[in-house]
Predict the 3D structure of the following.
Amino acid sequence: MQHMPGDPLHIYGIPITLHKTTQLDKFGNPLVDSSGNHVMRCGFRIGGGIDQNPAHCPYGYPDKGIYITSVDEGGAAELAGLQPHDKLLQVNGVDFTMVTHDKACKLIKNDPILQMVVYRKDAPPSLHQQPPTYLYDGYVLPGGAGNSHTFQPLPAAPNTSFMSPDKY
């Protein structure tokens, strides 16, 4: 059956909890930032955002969502179960379907533990355990089909890169 615009899509999310790890220097000592806090890493990179142009994406992502573009081998992301090309739907209760790239980066950096809901294309249904989120015309409406939220996407910013050069 073909999807008709305006009809809801049922998207099931995969819950993932990521505990950031402390970044170490070449001697095994914890790195410290200018505030005296340990530098924490997630072990992944992201791409996308509502201010990015998916046409610039080398991976062919179909929309302006936030995607995991790479996962460090043996890092916190890999240990938590994240995979390259997972789409971040939610992080620590924040809807990631309508965020700019910069806002996604800031939200990811905020907390030492990330409670995430991701979408993984072609994942078996048994892996997707969260209740469905309803998607209308490309916009996620958390909480079910009864919502009447209207989202206005931002235009793509000129001269922007799809992927962040930073690792998290």
The two ends are 40 Å apart (CA to CA).
